[in-house]
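CO-FOLDING WORKSHEET

Operator: S.A.
Ligand of interest: flavin-adenine dinucleotide
Run index: 311
Mode: holo prediction, single chain
Checklist:
[x] sequence pasted
[x] SMILES validated
[ ] output reviewed
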Amino acid sequence: MLLDCAVIGGGPAGLNAALVLGRSRRKTILFDDNKPRNAVTQESHGFITRDGIDPQEFKRIGQEELSRYPDVSIEKQRVHRIIKDHTYFSVETEDGRVFKTKKVIIATGFKEILPDIPQIKEFYGKSLFGCPFCDGWELRDRPLAVIAVDQKAVHMAKLVSNWTDDLIVFTNGNQVASPEEKALLTRKGIKINEKKMISLIGEEGRLRKIQLEDQTEILRAGGFIASEWKQAATFESDLGYEINDQGGIKTDSMQRTKTPGVFACGDTRIAGPSQLIMAASEGSMAAISVNAELVEEKFSGQPEHQVEKGR
Ligand SMILES: Cc1cc2nc3c(=O)[nH]c(=O)nc-3n(C[C@H](O)[C@H](O)[C@H](O)COP(=O)(O)OP(=O)(O)OC[C@H]3O[C@@H](n4cnc5c(N)ncnc54)[C@H](O)[C@@H]3O)c2cc1C
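OUTPUT RECEIVED:
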């Protein structure tokens, strides 16, 4: 069967793309290997009607809603290769099957690279988070840490200061701020600690204190980490889309990449805040964009590859 669209990645971006495609009667398969980056957390916030929902429950509801649409199916498989032939794309899954499709939406998300600090992964998603808009409310008015080993430290500290007056920036031995920036933060009551961090101490992911190289221990109830990001997708492809300077897939406002027939949405673009509702919204836009191209191709009378080349 020739698909109208293959959606790669079944987080909020891919789920919403598949929903809008299904409602548009487009033959669609959503491929997902269920390894989202928010699997480390129990609650997602800030999505109206879903504030505080377990991310896996969010996904379950999304998949249930898709099951109402006969043109959409879900393959719980990792896509390991996408090849563009003359007109169509071949999407190959890990179990060796190949699916032909007219369009591809990439919604594979990103992964964070946490700073190299002992035990940090035990606390990530439980009391240390990446985004104050997602988890700041739950940590409000508590003694917090910003853990940042590069220039993102000052921006993150300013942001987090909205949720607490007791904030320390830990740089793990790095110089991350100019003297002027340090003076500014100090004037606002934010301390910077530039000692190496030896250990994070707490129980079941709940941070209690941070131990430093000189053996001092500083009480902290949680905080925020400024991470590096990289693409989550590990599939091979010859799609040749452009990458932005943060390593995300570059698109226009219609979620189109430079490669005709290939769209990208959600975290995989690594552009702007990383939020469920924004990913879902971009998924919707990608689907509308795919649909618009398919309609145009139907009525233009041109073979699809010529339409695509003429964009
Ligand atoms: C600790 C933490 C807490 C967060 N809290 C919140 C919050 O409270 N509120 C909020 O709005 N946002 C929160 N976020 C951010 C939110 O999780 C992301 O913005 C959102 O999940 C992005 O959606 P997405 O669909 O783009 O990517 P993802 O949700 O990451 O989904 C991508 C999917 O693609 C799949 N995939 C990847 N490669 C392949 C492949 N080759 N083949 C098949 N499938 C593939 C992955 O397994 C995954 O299921 C949090 C993130 C983290 C890490």
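REVIEW:
The domain at 115-225 is CATH 3.50.50.60 (FAD/NAD(P)-binding domain).
Residues 118 and 199 are 6 Å apart (CA to CA).
[x] output reviewed
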